[in-house]
Design goal:
single chain, 271 residues, alpha/beta, Rossmann fold, 2 domains, six-stranded parallel beta sheet, 12 strands, 28% helix, 20% strand, elongated, binds NADP nicotinamide-adenine-dinucleotide phosphate
Length: 271
């Protein structure tokens, strides 16, 4: 049974991803749909997920939720101390580079154990024509040689990098409507995954797409476009991920993150 004398262990999840929602659902005191507690019953948990507040109607995770920036690494370190956080899990999107670096700095300052959760990246298979680049600027530079009708799935925040490409037409898919600057010739499709191969095939065909741009987000929910592109012989510009900050341990999914927490808290109990 939970030790009544000790407050619950507080886990802060930096979220905004499917993995973060799955982890919160598995750890939160009354996990929706989870058949048994992920951690031992004597380890009472308080689970808070932090969202950046970019999306107007976010999918809310189980447990407690806070929304908005912390004010840099110092603000995050302060939050960790003021809310007595026992473990920090960076389950943000692989391309959310700034918050991941802030998390590494803040965890070191506040002496809070930190783990990063990163789903595996995509790998090209037979029949794929991939052009791997390291930034949105490089992706934009590669486009004119590859096609004229672009399916752009890198999110509305990076559209400025493509705004100078006046000779190309863009189909832009994003969760919320983009704001300028953006390419002058574009159609916006407001939608969020999961997407099906059938749906992606239809999009490529209907809009006569001849090149696709994606970040290597590695998510199953958005991988269908790669299959559809392969089938249609459409080349794909893939933006590579930034590295996880040095020294931060990484696991691939929520199950391994729960395992890490279990090890962390049982080691602390045995001292
Ligand atoms: P970012 O560039 O790494 O972070 C910019 C700033 O946003 C951070 O310095 C921080 O502000 C705030 N922030 C980011 N994530 C936060 C979180 N989970 N909780 C509180 N504040 C957060 O981040 P981004 O690429 O804009 O992504 C923002 C959010 O969208 C992340 O939660 C990420 O998981 C999600 N997301 C991103 C992408 C993508 O392609 N980048 C795709 C899908 C989902 P302060 O410095 O003030 O603390």
């Amino acid at each position: 049974m939970p030790d009544a004398a000790r407050p619950p262990r507080h886990v802060l999840i930096l979220g905004g991803t499917t993995e973060a929602r799955r982890l919160a659902a598995a750890l939160a005191p009354e996990p929706a749909g989870a058949p048994e507690p992920v951690l031992a019953p004597e380890c009472a948990l308080r689970v808070t997920t932090s969202l950046a507040g970019r999306v107007s109607a976010p999918r809310l995770p189980a447990g407690e939720v806070r929304i908005g920036g912390f004010g840099g690494p110092e603000g995050l370190a302060r939050w960790l101390r003021e809310h007595a956080v026992d473990a920090l899990i960076d389950a943000t999107h692989p391309f959310a580079d700034t918050i991941s670096h802030n998390a590494a700095l803040a965890a070191a300052t506040a002496h809070v154990p930190l783990l990063a959760v990163r789903r595996p990246g995509w790998v090209p298979g037979p029949g794929d024509t991939w052009h791997q680049v390291t930034s949105l600027d490089e992706a934009a530079a590669a486009l004119p040689a590859l096609g004229t009708r672009v399916f752009l799935t890198t999110g509305r925040m990076g559209l400025a990098h493509f705004a100078h490409l006046t000779g190309l037409w863009f189909l832009v898919r994003s969760v919320d409507a983009p704001e300028p600057p953006h390419p002058p010739r574009m159609e916006v499709l407001l939608d969020r995954g999961p997407f099906t191969v059938e749906g992606e095939r239809a999009l490529l065909r209907t809009h006569r797409i001849d090149v696709l741009v994606t970040k290597d987000s590695g998510a199953a929910a958005t991988a269908a476009k790669l299959t559809a592109a392969r089938e249609a012989g459409v080349p794909v510009v893939v933006v590579r991920r930034p590295p996880v900050p040095d020294g931060v341990p990484v696991v691939e999914g929520p199950e391994a993150a729960a395992e890490w927490l279990r090890g962390l808290f049982s080691a602390a109990d045995s001292h």
